[in-house]
Specification:
- The protein has 734 residues and is α/β, with parallel strands linked by helices.
- It folds into 4 domains: 140 residues, no CATH class; 140 residues, no CATH class; 198 residues, Alpha-Beta Barrel (TIM Barrel); 216 residues, no CATH class.
- Helices cover 47% and strands 7% of the residues.
- It has an 8-stranded mixed barrel, surrounded by 5 helices.
- Helix 3 packs across helix 6.
- It is globular and about 95 Å long.
- 45% of the residues are buried.
Length: 734
């Protein structure tokens, strides 16, 4: 929400510093909304007023030391100029404090605001009064909050204030947020606190979980009755990991909480704050010397390696279903005969699916749908049985906003596809925050946690996901000689035990493949246009429309219809491979209906949206909700897809899916094609369906073949089918 005083602060920066030119930035939007852009501008303005020549967005060591050396502390006696004071006043308003009238006066209102800021930071005792000390100033010029914010915990805020108050005078400890939320900064501050209490000097303490810290913690085991700073640190670590214990002494209630935590993360249940428990509370990977019973890797499991893993206590092996690279990591994907070796040696396998998945722009609903189809096919190819959980990878440090915008929709596509088209389950591999967010959305059964990446922001400050199955904590070597293998060592929770028996595997011979668009797009389009023109369907217009009227009313050209279908080639291919039929049988009616879209179709859709009609043919495939319900129910009855039978009460929801979700629409076209074979009393469409039956299936898409228009529809689409199938054949037989 816009704040008038923040808007005035932004105007102050613009009018005083040449619309940002003096500070090396663009003019600020005077929108009254606090943002990093505004805080960076104020930071640069502060640096400029102090005479720092190289301005930066960062309130770093130079800015901090300049305040200390020039002024010691900032207050009514040391503020050097009115504009300097206006910067402080503006920053206070951006933080939600009363900074006065932005008039350049460090008056009683400013003094009260700074005193309140010190108190909120937990520094009221260390820094009493209304002076702004250098580290407090650093905390003022950022976006951290020092009051409990939405969803925050007052207990966590009290811990944050305690940490600030106790350690702020240490050289490398800076003000952390006091917002009631665990975070990366809070997690690092806990490590600094432990190191300070171990007696590490400034400069030695670095916030890393290194050998010195680990050695020190091994001599600080806590048990019931422990009091003092170490008990406070331990209970703080428990609370930050979402364990419901009181902050302070190691009471009987804390002991019970420790036992619960140890059981959850699969540590020995001792009820004491031993080293392994400290480690699991402070860093995502915990004690990396722990012996795991699960592992994953990119190396083939040979008989010798299987024996080495078994001898080392491993039970579960994670292996990749697929390797998109033909040159990198040649044994990454499951190799021929490998699952038989795993079975023969009493091991079990859990499958992982990954292509790229290392940046936000990879993830989308459509990509999730495509990945799921590929994962199903590869899982069936290798022989994984229904009930297997497939782990889909998020192999980068996803920010929370990226999870919302990209990764959750991606897994919605994964879950919908896996659930509808297979008996497999969905798992997620990734940082803790990704895993928990996907679990909370209902799109995963279990999580495979990439805890080895302890520096990921999605691991720092987040507790172990509630549905974790495998916890990846270290890369190690196992075995020797022929049995030597490099693996990622994982702790297993028991929520997923993988598979120990496998089917013979499925063949993909003769199935359609993705088209090489660069190679086939232009000649394919030319042949489509040539055929459609020959039957009276020109590039634009037709059906009695003049070109002018057709264009005015938003008609679809042949080229546009073709390119839309080609843009979804991945989906047509996936459906054809999954259902064992020719993709031209799905492509042809969709392309035809796209080309034939007319104003009447749009008007019918609007009538349904307005509640004036119950149903209309809609979306790319111009398909009705009522027939979609019949087709999907038939496919469910036949075991072709999974789902709950649809009824007339689902009509509105089905129509909306057909209208808004192109993947749902195209999938429904495919299922209708199978249903139409039943209607025609012919065999389910396959790779060898005859030309005559193919034409009948295409005609039935328009209606009963007793209707002449449907027979003509089939005849026209058969020619289009032949053009499309010709190029599909070239692609699969290259």
């Amino acid at each position: 929400m816009a704040d008038e005083m923040v808007r005035l602060a932004q105007r102050f920066v613009n009018t005083t510093y040449g619309n940002g030119a003096t500070l090396g930035i663009s003019k600020l939007d005077e929108n009254g909304v606090t943002s990093w852009t505004t805080m960076y501008a104020l930071t640069r303005a502060l640096q400029y007023e102090m005479g720092i020549s190289s301005l930066s967005d960062s309130f770093g060591p130079t800015t901090l030391s300049t305040i200390a050396s020039k002024y010691g502390k900032l207050d009514e006696t040391t503020i050097p100029s009115a504009n300097f004071c206006r910067i402080i006043q503006s920053a206070l308003y951006c933080k939600g404090y009363d900074g006065g009238e932005i008039d350049g006066k460090y008056n009683s209102r400013v003094q009260a605001a700074v005193a309140k800021l010190n108190q909120n930071m937990g520094l009221g005792t260390t820094y009493p009064g209304s002076s702004l000390w250098p580290k407090v100033a650093k905390g003022l010029f950022n976006m951290d909050a020092y009051v409990t914010v939405a969803g925050g915990s007052d207990t966590i805020r009290s811990i944050q204030q305690w940490l600030n108050g106790r350690y702020i005078l240490r050289k490398d400890f800076y003000v952390i947020p006091c917002d009631g939320h665990h975070s990366r900064d809070v997690a690092k501050s806990m490590l600094f606190a432990v190191q300070y209490e171990l007696g590490m000097a400034d400069g030695t303490a670095n916030g890393a979980f290194g050998p010195g810290t680990q050695s020190g913690l091994k001599s600080h085991t806590l048990s019931s009755g422990a009091t003092g700073t170490w008990a406070q640190l331990f209970t703080a670590a428990m609370i930050l990991n979402k364990r419901n214990v009181p902050f302070g002494n190691f009471t009987a209630e804390v002991k019970a909480g420790v036992e619960s935590f140890q059981s959850f993360v699969k540590l020995p249940v001792t009820g004491s704050g031993d080293f392994q428990t400290w480690a699991s509370l402070l860093v995502s990977y915990g004690d990396q010397s722990r012996k795991g019973t699960a592992c994953d890797g990119v190396t083939m499991i040979t008989p010798a390696r299987a024996q080495a893993l078994k001898a080392a206590g491993y039970k579960y092996v994670g292996r990749y279903l697929y390797n998109p690279s033909t040159t990198s990591l040649p044994e990454k994907a499951i190799q021929p005969g490998e699952l038989a070796t795993i079975k023969a040696n009493g091991l079990r396998c859990f499958p992982i699916f990954q292509t790229w998945s290392r940046s936000a722009d990879y993830f989308s609903y459509n990509q999730g749908t495509g990945d799921a189809f590929k994962a199903i096919e590869w899982a069936q190819y290798h022989g994984f049985k229904p009930g297997t959980i497939i782990y889909f990878a998020v192999d980068y440090d996803a920010m929370d906003g990226e999870i919302t915008q990209y990764i959750v929709p991606h897994f919605r596509g994964v879950m919908r596809t896996i659930g509808e088209n297979s008996g497999y389950g969905v798992g997620v591999y990734g940082p803790r925050n990704v895993c928990q967010r996907i679990a909370d959305a209902g799109f995963s059964a279990t999580s495979f946690v990439s805890d080895m990446s302890s520096g990921f922001s999605g691991n720092l400050g987040y507790p172990m996901p509630t549905n974790w199955a495998f916890d990846q904590i270290a890369t190690i070597n196992v075995g020797s000689g022929d049995g030597a293998i490099n693996i990622d060592n994982n702790i297993a929770s028991g929520r997923d035990t993988g598979q120990g028996d496998f089917n013979a595997g499925a063949s993909s011979n003769g199935l359609d493949v993705d088209l090489d668009k660069a190679k086939y797009r232009d000649p394919m389009l030319a042949d489509v246009k040539k055929y459609l023109t020959s039957i009276g369907v020109p590039e634009t217009g037709g059906d009695g429309w003049t070109d002018k009227d057709w264009a005015t009313l938003g008609g679809t050209s042949t080229t546009k219809a073709f390119d839309l279908v080609l843009s979804a080639d991945w989906l047509f291919t996936s459906l054809a491979r999954q259902l064992g039929l020719r993709k031209a049988l799905i492509q042809a009616p969709v392309m035809w209906e796209l080309r034939k879209l007319n104003p009447g179709d749009a008007l019918a859709d609007e009538a349904v949206k307005a509640g004036l009609k119950e149903d209309s043919s809609t979306g790319w495939g111009q398909i009705f909700a009522w027939v979609t319900i019949e087709a999907r129910n038939y496919c469910m009855q036949q075991g072709i897809i999974n789902g709950t039978p649809l009824t007339k009460s689902d009509m509105k929801a089905v129509w909306e899916d057909l209208n808004k979700d192109t993947t749902y629409n195209i999938r429904s076209v495919a299922y209708l094609t199978i249903y139409n074979a039943f209607q025609l009393k012919i065999a389910r469409p396959s790779l060898t369906t005859s030309a005559a039956e193919t034409q009948d299936l295409l005609g039935r898409y328009n209606g009963p073949l007793t209707v002449p228009a449907a027979r003509e529809y089939g005849k026209q689409l058969m020619g289009l089918y032949n053009v499309l199938e010709n190029y599909n054949r070239l692609a699969r037989t290259k």
